[in-house]
Amino acid sequence: MNVIESGRDRHAIRVDGLTKSFGRVVAVDDVSFGVDAGSTVALLGANGAGKTTTLSMILGLLLPTGGTIEVLGCDMLGARHHALWRMNFSSPYVDLPQRLTVRENLSVYAKLYGVREPKARIATLAEELSLTAFLKRPTGRLSAGQKTRVALAKALINDPELLLLDEPTASLDPDTADWMRGYLEGYRARRRATIVLASHNMSEVERLCDDVLMMKQGRIVDRGSPMQLIAQYGRANLEEVFLHIARSDHAQAV
Amino acid sequence: MTDGMRRAAAVPPAAFSFGRIGAMILRYWYLLRGSWPRILELAYWPTMQMILWGFITLHFVSQSAWVAQAAGVLISAVLLWDVLFRGQLGLSLSFLEEAWSRNLGQLFVSPLRPSEWVVAMMTMSLIRTLIGVIPACLLALPLFGYSVFGIGLPLVAFFVNLIVCGWWIALIVVSLILRLGLGAESMAWLIVFLLAPISCIYYPLEVLPAAVQWLALSLPPAHVFEGMRAVLFDETFLVRHFFAAAGLNGLFMTISGLIFMWAFNDARRRGALLQQGE
Description:
The complex is a heterodimer. By secondary structure, chain A is an alpha/beta fold. Chain A folds into two domains: 1-86 and 160-254, P-loop containing nucleotide triphosphate hydrolases (Rossmann fold), CATH 3.40.50.300; 88-159, no CATH class. In chain A, 35% of the residues lie in helices and 25% in strands. Chain A has helices at residues 51-59, 81-84, 102-112, 118-128, 144-155, 174-191, 202-208, 226-233, 238-247; strands at residues 11-22, 25-36, 40-44, 66-71, 74-75, 87-90, 162-166, 194-198, 211-216, 219-224. In chain A, the strands form two sheets. In chain A, strands 6-7-8-3-9-10 form a six-stranded mixed sheet, sandwiched between helices. In chain A, helix 6 (174-191) links the parallel strand 7 and strand 8 (194-198). The longest helix of chain A is centred in the C-terminal third of the chain and has 18 residues, at 174-191. In chain A, 51% of the residues are buried. Mean pLDDT of chain A is 90; it is low at 1-8. Chain B has one domain (15-275). Residues 1-7 of chain B have low confidence and may be disordered. Chain B contains 13 helices and no strands. Chain B is mainly alpha-helical. Chain B has helices spanning 3-7, 18-33, 36-63, 65-69, 73-100, 104-107, 114-144, 154-180, 187-195, 210-217, 220-234, 239-270, 272-275. The termini of chain B are far apart. Helices cover 76% and strands 0% of the residues of chain B. Chains A and B meet through helix 1, helix 2, strand 6 and helix 3 of A and helix 1, helix 2, helix 6 and helix 12 of B.
């Protein structure tokens, strides 16, 4: 088991001995880690490494086979509803209703999260994310970039302390992706929010993240800041570190 | 209280929230009002069925002494049967809308609880059923000179029992789809018709073979339709049928609620909330 310990109070997420099996397949294998409040942390790994499975368990969408998950001080297996209103999630693989307009979708989620002033909140987010012109348009008729911004607006509707993002810039053009990264940096600084993201974009991770959890075959095989990992492996950038770990035969857990 | 909690835009969630139920009703209402063909479709089948059975009634009144005793028996039967069918379909469709739009993952990372979602789907089923059945009921008056509202207060008892029956059947359908995936979605349209032959919609219980009658009486619809005929033929409200239907609905609603919660938690174990979709 790999445990990365630090002070309990400063953790936004604390995972201990997390395991998920689907029949004989072990998707996440006895993983333990903490995520400091206010930090941006990336889960990196090849397809099937266990990133999305780990995120899904942190969100409570997937029940673990073993282990414990504590988010914002709440036990996610027994009292997840005490944490859910303070966190949010976005993924290109989970849609919003396509026939509802952008405003309708955001209104529904504002009510679900108990947002105090939903109209003002939607107007603010629409302004910040350049969605004002699209509020009356059905979500299904937006471009990929516009849909990603709507998904982010939904993820920010409750002004979350903890934001979990699965491939936040997937399918975005470089300009929009760069804008999105800048927005996330600003949000984190303004809100002092914790952000956990799964990404395949190494330059994005280098830019955004304080800490990287390298996953392979359901285990965390290394952890550190992007610069630490680059120096530790003697590589030029994080992508080379990723390729080295992904192609190495053995997964040595830290 | 942390600094983050003080500044949060949202309020802490209650254990059971009518606000979140309202949010889900709003979500389905937005979908419904955004498509006039959907609203038209709700009223289309009940109206067509009513017209068809109205003309059959006109023919049978002169040919059948049984129908002649209460000319509205077939029209009432078809309209009440539609309450059960629409009630079941209304709840199942709300679930399917979420599965088709791959929205379950978004919903259940929000503070929405499964029980609130079910209440919202039931409310939406009631709205869909009323939109579907009321125009047909009103149209029966000028077309065939028959008002189903003439049944009086017992109509409320029949309506409630049938729509509740539709809801617990729908919860079983939803559970099956959660377990088996969208490949089982046709169950939403088919499953009610499994009950039709033993529901005694258009004929009295005695028509069924004796060996099957106990099966019919172990489900609520046969009690409702027997009660309906007693009101129409004898102007008598049979309390025993009402309580039998209500009791059976309570029993089956409890069982189907437990099945639903099992299927929901099983879906969380298998990761199916993220994978539901076409």
